[in-house]
Amino acid sequence: MTPWFDPSLVFVGGAWRPCASGETLPVIDPSTGVEIARIARGSATDIDAAVTAAEAALSGDWGAMPAFQRGRILARLGQMVLDHIDQLAQMEATDVGKPLTQARNDVIALARYCEFYAGAADKLMGETIPFQPGFTVYTLREPHGVTGHIVPWNYPMQIIGRSVGAALATGNACVLKPAEEACLTALAFADLAHKAGLPPGALNVVPGLGAEAGAALTAHPGIRHISFTGSVATGRRVQAATAENVVPVTLELGGKSPQLVFADADLNAALPFLVNAGIQNAGQTCSASSRILVERSVYAEVCDRMAEAYRALTTGPAMADLRTGPLISARQKGIVERYLAMADPAHILARGQLAPDLPPGGHYIAPALIAGPAPDHPLAQEEIFGPVQIILPFEDEEDAIRIANGTLYGLVASVWSRHGGRQMRLAKRLRAGQVFINNYGAAGGVELPFGGTGLSGHGREKGFEALYAFTTLKTVAAHHG
Ligand code: TXE
């Protein structure tokens, strides 16, 4: 997989150029541990140049462009993404270590975000407000200006789609800082956007380390909004930095999302979702369902059936396209192994299988299903971010809610039950930004507002809701007598 662009450059003002320091960072293929490319080590100087380019775009062609025209460019971009599906999927699979089919799905999701926000660009409207006689009052939705986007390594294309897509549709100019572990598709996206007709400076991409390029972006006084997806620890730093400049921030910080399985559930329908929501992308998913809560009377049966499904899971290189690939890095593998070491070996119900002859430098972990640590155990409380699921029993609806809501997170939850009243009650009482009934994740749902409460963060991305987040509201009160 050789990118069609030079990945060691930054993309600023519609052109590729070396970063100011001239230094580069390695791109490691997590499936093999081998370096496959170099990316720029962007710094505060590059971020500053990107913000300047974005400001120039706003006072030039991009800022003057009518909304429908922005939509057309996004629509073209969506088509170009689909036209490059093979290259982009291979690039993402190699860079992130995700199985090729999952990487292809991410390409399709990126195209869907472009399509959705293309269609929405000229449909965001203000209101007229009934006021006193002699006045006409209305609201205008205006772009923030230059928006900063800090993206993690687990779903680069999807997260870029949901945040940059909405920001461009509403007329902001973006500076994107992808994760140092997986930058390639961010750079590819910028190249395609340029070719789709996006004016220079409307989208700038500066790869680099979080503590350098990332911190410089969040602290830059020219940035008017920050969208961040990543860890709680970094999210806190990002929010503190944006507080200095008093700019709004959207934080999506992962979770410990539960699926609640009641005795009356259709277990055949539930089972694939119970397992897949935990192991997709090797569990490195913000909305991963890492806790399965099961009504006591069917607990043993669900444990057995999930264990059987786990034993059939295979893990191997991204290009082998098995159920799970490697973890992103040796560091992430170490984190997951430390959590696994906390488990009582007798509680590990099942492990998946590692494919034979794995490349020795890859960061592989066989998925693990762990039964019954106490709900307050770190395994049942903390985000592990690996292919590990915890399965716990509950006694009744009240107990289920207590355990489900008993972490500091609140991103996603699901309820498996045929009982309509229970579905509605739980949908109201579960602490989460999204609740699914008899499904999980709704296949990604680009149309569906997404975000969390508690340590999972605040603000909403995806769907139409993101358009409100990426605009600021102006009220105009005209007195005409
Ligand atoms: O995250 P970071 P890491 C969780 C997951 C994982 C843990 C650590 O539990 O084990 O976080 O992952 C940039 N100012 N999630 O270390 O540090 C960084 O360059 C500005 C959940 O990768 O949060 C990258 O682009 N930016 C999550 C992005 O922040 C900074 C997805 C994420 O990195 C910065 C990823 C700084 N000071 C990890 N420091 C999810 N919600 O899905 C780093 N960055």
From TrEMBL:
Q: Matching InterPro entries, A to Z?
A: Ald_DH/histidinol_DH, Ald_DH_C, Ald_DH_CS_GLU, Ald_DH_N, Aldehyde_DH_dom
Stretches assigned to the Aldehyde dehydrogenase domain: 16-476
Active site (record annotation): E252
Segments crossing the lipid bilayer: none
Q: Care to name a GO molecular-function term for this sequence?
A: oxidoreductase activity, acting on the aldehyde or oxo group of donors, NAD or NADP as acceptor
Keywords (alphabetical) are: Oxidoreductase
The entry's family comment says: Belongs to the aldehyde dehydrogenase family.
Q: Which PANTHER family match?
A: ALDEHYDE DEHYDROGENASE-RELATED (PTHR11699)
Q: What is this protein called?
A: Aldehyde dehydrogenase (NAD+)
What is the originating organism of this protein? Roseicyclus mahoneyensis
